[in-house]
Design brief:
- It is a single chain.
- With about 375 residues, the protein is mainly beta.
- The strands form 7 sheets. A 4-stranded antiparallel beta sheet has the order 2-3-4-5, with no helix packed on it. Strands 6-7-8-9 form a 4-stranded antiparallel beta sheet, with no helix packed on it. A 4-stranded antiparallel beta sheet has the order 10-11-13-14, with no helix packed on it.
- The protein is globular and about 60 Å long.
Length: about 375
């Protein structure tokens, strides 16, 4: 009798285990829609498409390094585990620095059969003991799931100030460009917004982060030339971009204005750069864009900015929408804005959203943030559930 009961218990546990495993793996069987947010807790999401598979990278989900997820349909993601470790043989970061070493904003690019991971971290070379000593590194692997090993035992370059949020653009003429954000840290800037903040007694000074671009060497071993300032917050309050890019200050969240999380692409001989503004940890984080006829500018910000922002003012649930990348449907016909946000349910956790976007005649539209069912990306094949 005891033996029979034991066998029954084992069988029940196995059934429950299998059922749980199946319930935690999303599929497209019998489904024709998806709903945001996706079941992935990451900030700064970036998607690579190669050999018929999508790979998702981002901030979080790993111990002093980076993790990856894989998908066939851009919607349902399988964990691939940690793919970069700070203590690889060429590791240059300081895992004990503030923010836990700050392993942020990974992006992976495929070139000549290799995969290159660009990321931000705190540099262990820090003689003046700066609180923010971020630099950008490059690691390489044979597979999109790693393991990634740093190309060098130092950052890709040292501009003399902390930098984050690397984005790489491959131009049609063969040149490669690196875009990054100079951190706000110890970078106070005079502007009408800063003057207003001091006059009102909100803050004594306003620090800003700016986006720069610079040409990369073809082997990613360093840079060519000097950085070029691409984007910065508005100086004058009359600037049409000033209101939305200054909300972190005018809402008295923090004495900083950000321009960060950029992504650059080219369409119809026009260069587009999308960027995020406001406090990355606040509700007002939002996305805008600018256009240019040259990869390093000058760029003109769009009149319809921001193209993605919180929707709580219209009865929605989403705030903190920002730091996006771009992905295409399996058949290449649809374009998606991939970004992180927060909902009332997720609280402070950043989760991944994908929403359709359109680029036409120099304008970008993002159809989000959404939390209602959407059609699956075009080209995704669904299978019958058999019921």
């Amino acid at each position: 009798m005891k033996k029979a009961l034991l066998l029954l218990c084992v069988f029940t546990v196995l059934v429950l285990h299998v059922g749980l495993a199946q319930s935690t793996q999303s599929t497209t069987v019998g489904k024709s829609t998806f709903t945001n947010p996706l079941s992935v807790q990451l900030g700064d999401p970036y998607i690579l498409y190669t050999n018929g598979m999508y790979y998702l990278y981002g901030t979080g989900g790993a111990d002093k390094g980076f993790a990856a997820y894989s998908s066939k349909d851009l919607v349902n993601w399988k964990p691939e585990g940690q793919i970069y470790f700070h203590n690889n043989k060429n590791g240059w970061s300081d895992p004990n620095a503030s923010w836990g070493g700050a392993y942020w904003a990974p992006e992976v690019y495929e070139m000549k059969g290799k995969f290159y991971l660009f990321y931000s971290a705190q540099w262990k070379v820090n003689p003046t003991k700066e609180v923010e000593n971020f630099r950008i590194g490059v690691a390489v692997a044979d597979k999109p799931t790693g393991p990634f090993i740093d190309l060098s035992s130092k950052p890709v370059f040292d501009p003399g100030y902390p930098v984050i949020d690397a984005n790489v653009f491959f131009d049609t003429n063969g040149k490669i460009y690196l875009y990054y954000s100079r951190c706000c840290y110890k970078h106070p800037v005079k502007s009408e917004v800063a003057a207003l903040a001091k006059e009102k007694g909100w803050f004594e000074e306003i620090e800003e982060s700016w986006v720069y671009g610079i040409e990369l060497k073809p082997d990613f071993s360093g840079v060519i030339g000097e950085p070029v300032l691409v984007l910065r917050p508005p100086i004058q309050m009359s600037d049409t971009q000033a209101e939305w890019e200054s909300r972190s200050v005018t809402e008295r969240e923090v004495n900083r204005r950000w321009t960060e999380g950029s992504v650059t692409f080219k369409k119809d001989n026009l260069y587009y750069i999308m960027y995020s503004a406001n406090h990355f940890g606040g509700a007002h984080y939002a996305i805008g864009y600018a256009t240019s006829h040259s990869p390093l500018g000058p760029y003109k910000k769009a009149d319809n900015n921001p193209v993605l922002q919180k929707n709580t003012g219209e009865g929605g649930l989403v705030t903190g929408t920002g730091h996006n990348s771009i992905a295409y449907s399996p058949d290449g016909k649809e374009m998606f804005c991939v970004y992180h946000g927060r909902t009332a349910k997720t609280g402070e956790e950043r989760v991944v959203f994908i929403d359709r976007m359109q680029v036409k005649n120099g304008n970008i539209e993002v159809y989000g943030p959404t939390t209602i069912p959407q059609k699956l990306p075009s080209g995704v094949k669904t299978t019958s559930s058999g019921k």
